[in-house]
Amino acid sequence: MTQTIIFSYPGACSRVTMTALEEIGAPYEVRWIDIMSQAQYASEYLAKNRKSKVPALVVEGTTLTENAAILNYLHTAHPQAKLLPQTGNAIEDTQGLSDLVWCGGMLHPMVRQIRAPQKWTKGSEAETAGIRADGMEKLAKECAYIEQRLAQAPWWYGADWSIVDTYLYWVVSTAAKSVFSTADYPAITAHSQQVRARPSFQRMLAREVAALSSDGIALDPTSL
Fold it and tell me: Are residues 54 and 119 in the same domain?
């Protein structure tokens, strides 16, 4: 049996990968990396993932990093889970990978600008305020597009859920935990509720909540 291990932190973007693993239904082990306590810089973890972040997925001893790559691998290795669209058309099917890269490479940095602008500069508070404002402006523009699309269908690709839906939820909900307001995006709000209600998300969430007590991670469960 293939041994699958995910290195994760409650509430981080690694929860997208965990949700994908729950959708697949195959057994996997979670190893929690307390990034708030700088555990990602421990030598033991750096030996697995020199990038010192989560997630990292280890499959039979081989480590994969970067959410888009990990999720595309899981989609390819477990097509029955239908994590991404499968039409048989190479160009159309690659759109799923394109959207994952958009989430990870474009939207995700905007969230970091909003939630942790100090990590983008060694300058003054005025500079961090400008970085946050820039992230807010950029994400608002993207959310206008996301809102328009979700107003036309329940899921990103229409009638069917995909892991892109969970990634989009993570982006918007994480930004909203800071100063980004979702009040003007009713379709996104409805979409978020659907994502959270999905059984795979609820199973992932239960693992995160359990980790807060069993692994001693100092995080408010209501923030999840």
Answer: no
CA distance 219 to 224: 9
Predicted confidence at residue 1, as pLDDT, reads: 52
Residues 6+ apart with CB under 8 A from 129: 117
Q: Clarify whether residues 96 and 190 are in a common domain.
A: yes
Same domain, 151 and 55: no
**CATH number of 94's domain:** 1.20.1050.10
User: CA 60, 90, 198 angle in degrees (round to 5)?
Assistant: 60
**Residues of the domain holding 145:** 90-198
**Is 144 found in the same domain as 63?**
no
> Are 9 and 34 contacting, i.e. CB atoms less than 8 angstroms apart?
yes
Q: What is the pTM of this model?
A: 0.96
Q: What is the pLDDT of residues 124-156, one digit of tens each?
A: 888 999 999 999 999 999 999 999 999 999 999
Q: Could you give the number of structural domains in the chain? A: 2
Shared domain check, 15 and 75: yes
Nearest to 107 by CA among 139, 71, 84, 133: 139
pLDDT in tens, 65-80: 999 999 999 999 999 9
Taking alpha carbons only, the member of 100, 47, 58, 92 closest to residue 75 is 100
Kindly list the distances between the CA atom of residue 134 and the CA atoms of 74, 107, 130, 161, 168, in Å, as whole numbers in the listed order: 34, 13, 6, 31, 19
Structure tokens at 126: 């005025």
